[in-house]
Amino acid sequence: MDIIDIQKLTKSFGTTQALKGINLTVKQGEVHGFIGPNGAGKSTTIRILLGILRKTSGKITLLGKDPWKDAVELHRQLIYVPGDVTLWPDLSGGEVIDLLGRIHGGLNVSRKKQLLERYQLDPTKKSRTYSKGNRQKVALVAAFSCDAQLYLLDEPTSGLDPLMEAIFQECVAEVKKAGKTVLLSSHILSEVETLCDRVSIIRKGQIVESGTLSGLRHLTRTTINVETKTSVPGLEKIHGIYDVSKNGLKYCFSVDSTAMAEVMEVLVPRGIQFLTAEPPSLEELFMRHYGDDISEKGGI
Amino acid sequence: MRASDFTGTKTLFKLFLRRDQFLLPIWILVPSILVFITAGTFAAMATQGLDSVLTEFNKDPLISALLGPAISIDLSGAIVWRGTSQIALVLGIGSLLTVIRHTRTDEETGRSELIRAYVIGPFANLTAAVGLTVIGNLIAGILIGLSIIILGGEPAGSFLYGATMATVGFFFSGLGALGVQLRENSGTARGIGITALGLGLAMAILNNFRGGDTFLKWINPMAWQRLTQPFAGNYGWNLLYFIAIGMIFTVIAYILSIHRDLGAGILTARSGPFEAPPHFSGPLALAWRLHKKSFIGWIVGTVLYIAAFSAISPGLSSTGGMSDWLSSLGGTNWSNEVGLGYVFISISIYLISLFVSFYAMSAVLQLKKEENEGRVEMLVDKQIGRIRWMGSHLIIAYLGSALLMVIMGVAGGFTYGMIAGNLRNEFWHIFGMCISKIPPVWILLGVTALLYGACPKITALGWGIWLSFTILEFAWEGQIIDWSIMCISPFSYVHYTINILELPLMPLFWMICISVILTGIGLLGFRNRDILTKA
């Protein structure tokens, strides 16, 4: 069953169209990465899923129900962690965690204690004194102390240090192992790469790519460094080969996966001395989709 | 203290000026507007000559209990006599909030941290904030002086009065600057300042009740016009005393400010509990927790005021002799029959109930604060329907405002009854007066709930409505408007001129119904709109 099914979802705020026909499916038990630059519409999508924003048009079902109409009922089964946590200044972290857990319908006390330990969070401090990272920890401890079918995490690790980031990844892995579903919106591509089964890339209110990581990699280029015995004339003329640079008999270029066989046929007769092939990272995948954004702004 | 400690003061001053471009003119101009309004009401009343009206007022035991003896029997004197409390209150609140806003609030939000990383001396921020407030008060003082001169006052007295009011503002700017050093949250400083303002108003009334010449005029800035005596003694040297007091506060603030870390308070931060108590488990418990502090503050304030008023009012009944203006209020001579003390306590309860509606409205607007500051987002994934979340705060607002009136009734009834020596009868009269004001308070509550739920961008309209009901009352007292216009205000149906024993109950019932309907529409509106979230 699809936990989340979104078809042609749009959302307008006045005259600005934040979402322009999103399609997104998240299957039961998967960790789904939701990546895109600031202002692409990640948070808007998640807030529509939470039923706090109303869709303008399109079809959206969450666990087979309508997130706007059946919000309260659905919230029994989901947990949300925002990327910018604001807390009640006069409440201590411990009080906030307990309160959130109880409103959710109960939290696992021993698990809470264990999480406080792992995240090294002092729950006796007043919320106003917490730093950004510590506020985020409060929300994460509250979230993972609760039991839910679906975890909606909207850039949950912003402000966390790398050690805490690693603990967060452990938490998500545990949740996944227990068969729960996670929608993880993130900037940190290594996080998505380690955790996610499938990825959707959103840009300017539209999903531009969606699929498994390995599936997406087929769409992109591999970077190859090669040294041959004799020179390779006409290499740059092959369709699907890019950025060829030559230094003596050392060549460096990137190549579409579709052109890989042809490139090898050309290289092999020249006598390969040395070869490295780097698979495309998510980083590059990301850059490919935002490349024109970056060049528009005069970067790279 | 070196010159480099003040580096960047000018830049920060300009920044604060830019941030306050709408707020600053309000509290600078309102005092002068109050001067004209006060003059206007006297002009309207004094058709047979201002002197006779003032002389009569001065003899009236009720009015002189509240306002004390007039220092000078002319229009300028009347402005000082009637307008000082309001003008001092406006300048006090304006100065207090301006200083806090540019010091502790900036530290709380982290803006100071950003600023202090640049070439900014340790005293620059405090100096710019205090400087802005002092200049604001000076301008306000000059404008007050010019306004009275325009109305025909003699220049020396006019400017002395303006200067006196400016030093009151300086007092509260110093108090604010001192308050923000104590704790890491701005609420503490605001609490100290507002307590001082409340006490100041109460002490001013107490001082007036005792003839205006007690030691209280020395310690209470709201009574400082009795020291300088503009248009009478013109004792300008006293200004130095006022400035000295303001300076003491400010200097202590400067010293404390370098003995603490940025963002921290002089008093160490208290830590909270490791776990929440078992009953802290739902939206209502959370709402109560968020409202508790301010509610307790309101209880203390209300009880203090009602106790003071009801303690002095029975004593007024024997003095006899009442101005024509008062006894003819409402077109009946009910006030002649029941006695002055009774009229006084009725008016007091009526006025306090206007302030309780202020509480009810601000309690509803806690919802907006929670939404704007993004804390609702922590609850949106929980099994709390929108109606339940909004309802939790509304319950506190409804019950809290009603409870304030009930407590007021009990405290006032007891004090009045004990002192009047007729507890059994008087208690129920006073209690009845208090609880009869609950329905109109709830009307304003309902209006605010409707605005918040259906069109949250214009909740400020609620304050406008509150203000217009208040203005209607004063306009009617000043005989500027007719009773038929006064009937727009829901408070007119429980007006102090109506004998509590003969109060028609149907309007009260309808008012409760209207309040419930307004709130219901607000709840439906909230259910159908987007929740505001951070971008």
Automatic annotation (TrEMBL), chain A:
GO molecular function: ATP binding; ATP hydrolysis activity
Keywords per UniProt: ATP-binding, Nucleotide-binding, Transport
Pfam families in UniProt: ABC_tran
Chain segments annotated as transmembrane: none
Highest rank taxon of the organism: Bacteria
Ranges in a coiled coil: none
Occurrences of domain ABC transporter (ranges): 4-229
Keyword Transferase: no
The family this protein is said to belong to: Belongs to the ABC transporter superfamily.
Protein name (record): ABC-2 type transport system ATP-binding protein
Species of provenance: Mobilisporobacter senegalensis
Lineage start: Bacteria, Bacillati, Bacillota, Clostridia, Lachnospirales
TrEMBL record, chain B:
Residue spans crossing the bilayer: 21-46, 79-100, 120-153, 159-180, 192-209, 235-256, 295-319, 339-360, 395-416, 428-451, 458-476, 508-526
Superkingdom, natural source: Bacteria
Keywords (A to Z) from UniProt: Membrane, Transmembrane, Transmembrane helix
Protein name: ABC-2 type transport system permease protein
Source organism per UniProt: Mobilisporobacter senegalensis
